[in-house]
Every structure is written in structure tokens, then in C-alpha cells.
């Protein structure tokens, strides 16, 4: 799905895209035949789930909206669609059923459409299989599609008709991918050092379901699809399902490789997504510069401050118990530094509760019901009466704390250390202007330059493949190639030097 697609705006795009598409198709499916079609900008992707039996019965199980995509790969799906009214839903369903009946279809399948914002729709293709996103349909209909496929294959007659099917509530699916959103969503490989998904079941008015094929300790390689799991939530309304997804993502913890959980959390909080004004161009429209996390809100700043102060208090208390007395300091006044923000706090409290008095703001942050200990990556507590969950861990300096999509380095310093810290010079990044680095782990498909060759900005340097997707690496400057450090067929790591310029 979505592999081997290129949009050609210019002749050069055709010349470069044609062989790349054929190669991707060959690698993924063993078939390099391709076809060309008109490109429609900013449509919505809506599909109808159909189900048939061997007795000529076919029904549709309503629609799924799959418009949140990146590189033609679905990222977030939901059922039903926020676009469709009853008349359009019935018209699309009727066409999907007619198609399935015309070919005597007798299993679960999906009829996909491109839809305009005016509710016009156009047939795209039919997938004669179970789709990745089938759980959202199961959640709103109460049907087990795998069970129904088996019953149909066994020759059983469908036990229900179209009039028996109703939409109940709203379901959202987030695909947890092994990719780094902070590096333009490039594939990420490695071992799942920690894999701790949220608890499944119903609570607080929403349901959580997580379909996964991995376990903690498994290896995610460059040779297969990047999906780790499918996280779904159901609730009576769309906004409640979105809010439930946000909380479920808070509770999902993965270590060992890059993953897109912070990005998914950002989408759940984003106003356009919450309003339902979707398009396949949504990610490009709303994150044109890529994803770099979100700026902490005032509430999140309080959470980061309180958690940092609480963690520092635990570590300082532990340090005071060491006979050497070399680690930690017996004090209750600190400066919490988050980015450019400095907050003087006075920290006190008892087991399971912390009070962080903001000395310059005249208010106190009360943390209660703290569920955390050193070494535990998830910190749960209640701040001034509101429950929250963050991912928190000690860093080389201070703590790294993430609440939903807001990730920050939190320093908890003595007042004197804070004064000196602000006078330290900024660390300078290494000069890589003469190097072409591999943006991801992968396999070199072709090396298109040689030592001594004159290269112009924008020309193809090499092609990398990872997780069945090919990526063209272009020169970012004019220059003469000094050295080539890889050849076709070589595996390369992220940030490995591929080509050096003189």
C-alpha cells in the first residue's frame, strides 16, 4: 500500500521517478509493472469495508477515513469519516456493494475512493484482503472481521443483513512506526529495549486496543515494514476518542529506537485535526518544516517544572544518605531551567506528594499520588487535582521529560549554578558541509558519483533503500568529489559518511 508512487511535476521527475518506482515495485512485490494516472491534489482518502459470503450476500460495514498519510503511507485512520453525511455514506456503500456483487466477492474486502471536500468521490481501487486498519471498523460495528472471513470461507451464510448494521460511536487508529519524527520520519532500526504499551480495556469512558506483532527485546530491521503496532481507541464521540488516544499515547513507552509517538500525540492536540478538516496533504500542510516537537503550554510548563523538582528531590534525598557526602546537596531551594525559562522553586513534601512553591509567581504546584521511582521511565501523578503521565529519565545533564508532544531538557540547579550556567558558551555543531551523510540506516542501491567527479547542487549522489522504500540522496552544494566511501549493496548506518567533497 502506497509503495512505489512518485508525483512527477517536471520532466526530470519522470526520468528519475520511473526507474525508482519500478525498482521499489520489484523489491516489494516481485512485479515491476507500473501505471500512470492523473494526480489529484489535497483529496481525502475514504474507503468502504465490504463483506460477502458464498450465497450471493454482500453488505458494507460503513467507511473509514485514512487521509492522514505521509509518503502515501497511512498514519492515522478513523471510522466513521467526519466528512460524510448519511446520503453520501449510503451512495458510496451502494457502489462498493455493487462492485463486490459484480465479481461474486465472498470475503472481507475494501473499496477505496478519493473524495473531494464537496463530498464528490471517485473509485480508486479494491483491496481483496483484510486491511491493516480493520480494527476501527470492528470497534464501531461490534463485528470480528477475521471471524466473518473464516465463516464465509467455510461456506456459512451471513447471519445479518445491511439493515442490521449500525454505527456505534467513533474509533481512531494510530500506527506506531519505527521512524524518527525529529529526522523527517526516516526509518529507525534497532532493538526494542523497552516495549510497554498502554493497558487494554475500557476506562474513563473510552476503550483501548493495541494490535502488535512484537515483544520487548525484538529487533526492528531495515528489511521489513516499519510498523510496530496499531493503537486504537473507541468512545461515544469523535473528540472523546481523540482524547482517549492522547492519553493512551502518553502511556505508551518504547526505548531503543526512534518512534513516532510524540508526533501522533501532537496530531491529537492539533486544532485542524480535531475539527475534522482533513486531507491527504494534512501532514505537509500542518508540519511544513517537519516535526520538532511542540512548545510547552503553560500547563505543560507547570508539569515539567513539578516533575523535574520532584525527581531532583528524590535523587538529592538518596545522595544525602551516602556517607561520602560527595553527591547531592541538602537544600530545598532550586532553579528549574527549561529552555530560556528560569523558575525559582522551594520544594517540600512527604512520600507520594511534593509541593513546589514558585517563589516568583506566588503559587504552589502540588503533586500527589506520585507513581515513580528512579529507573522507571514513566512518571504518573496528579498535579493540582489533574492526573497526567510523562516519560522521564535522567540525562547527561538534568532530566529529559516529555508530556505528549512537548519534550524538554529540564535542569534543576542551585541558584549559584544557575547563574554560572547561563554564562557558559553554546556548544558548536560539527562542520559537515563537505560531507554527504546517510540520513538513515539502510542499503546502498546505487552510488552515482565517483572520485574526482564535478557535481552540481541537486544532482543525485546515491540511492538508499530501507524498509522497502527508496530514498534519493542529492548533493546540497556544488563541488568535486574527494572520496566515495560506499558502493551499491553496502549496508550503512545513520550518519555514516558516504561521500566527501574537496
From TrEMBL:
<dbReference type="InterPro" id="IPR041265">
    <property type="entry name" value="PCC_BT"/>
</dbReference>
<keyword id="KW-0436">Ligase</keyword>
<dbReference type="Pfam" id="PF18140">
    <property type="entry name" value="PCC_BT"/>
</dbReference>
<dbReference type="GO" id="GO:0046872">
    <property type="term" value="F:metal ion binding"/>
</dbReference>
<feature type="domain" description="Lipoyl-binding">
    <location>
        <begin position="426"/>
        <end position="502"/>
    </location>
</feature>
<feature type="domain" description="ATP-grasp">
    <location>
        <begin position="1"/>
        <end position="154"/>
    </location>
</feature>
<dbReference type="InterPro" id="IPR011053">
    <property type="entry name" value="Single_hybrid_motif"/>
</dbReference>
<dbReference type="Pfam" id="PF02786">
    <property type="entry name" value="CPSase_L_D2"/>
</dbReference>
<dbReference type="InterPro" id="IPR005479">
    <property type="entry name" value="CPAse_ATP-bd"/>
</dbReference>
<dbReference type="GO" id="GO:0004658">
    <property type="term" value="F:propionyl-CoA carboxylase activity"/>
</dbReference>
<keyword id="KW-0464">Manganese</keyword>
<dbReference type="InterPro" id="IPR000089">
    <property type="entry name" value="Biotin_lipoyl"/>
</dbReference>
<keyword id="KW-0547">Nucleotide-binding</keyword>
<comment type="pathway">
    <text>Metabolic intermediate metabolism; propanoyl-CoA degradation; succinyl-CoA from propanoyl-CoA: step 1/3.</text>
</comment>
<dbReference type="InterPro" id="IPR005482">
    <property type="entry name" value="Biotin_COase_C"/>
</dbReference>
<dbReference type="Pfam" id="PF00364">
    <property type="entry name" value="Biotin_lipoyl"/>
</dbReference>
<dbReference type="GO" id="GO:0016042">
    <property type="term" value="P:lipid catabolic process"/>
</dbReference>
<dbReference type="GO" id="GO:0005524">
    <property type="term" value="F:ATP binding"/>
</dbReference>
<keyword id="KW-0460">Magnesium</keyword>
<protein>
    <recommendedName>
        <fullName>propionyl-CoA carboxylase</fullName>
        <ecNumber>6.4.1.3</ecNumber>
    </recommendedName>
</protein>
<keyword id="KW-0443">Lipid metabolism</keyword>
<keyword id="KW-0092">Biotin</keyword>
<keyword id="KW-0479">Metal-binding</keyword>
<dbReference type="InterPro" id="IPR001882">
    <property type="entry name" value="Biotin_BS"/>
</dbReference>
<keyword id="KW-0442">Lipid degradation</keyword>
<dbReference type="InterPro" id="IPR011054">
    <property type="entry name" value="Rudment_hybrid_motif"/>
</dbReference>
<dbReference type="Pfam" id="PF02785">
    <property type="entry name" value="Biotin_carb_C"/>
</dbReference>
<dbReference type="InterPro" id="IPR011761">
    <property type="entry name" value="ATP-grasp"/>
</dbReference>
<dbReference type="InterPro" id="IPR011764">
    <property type="entry name" value="Biotin_carboxylation_dom"/>
</dbReference>
<dbReference type="InterPro" id="IPR050856">
    <property type="entry name" value="Biotin_carboxylase_complex"/>
</dbReference>
<keyword id="KW-0067">ATP-binding</keyword>
<feature type="domain" description="Biotin carboxylation">
    <location>
        <begin position="1"/>
        <end position="288"/>
    </location>
</feature>
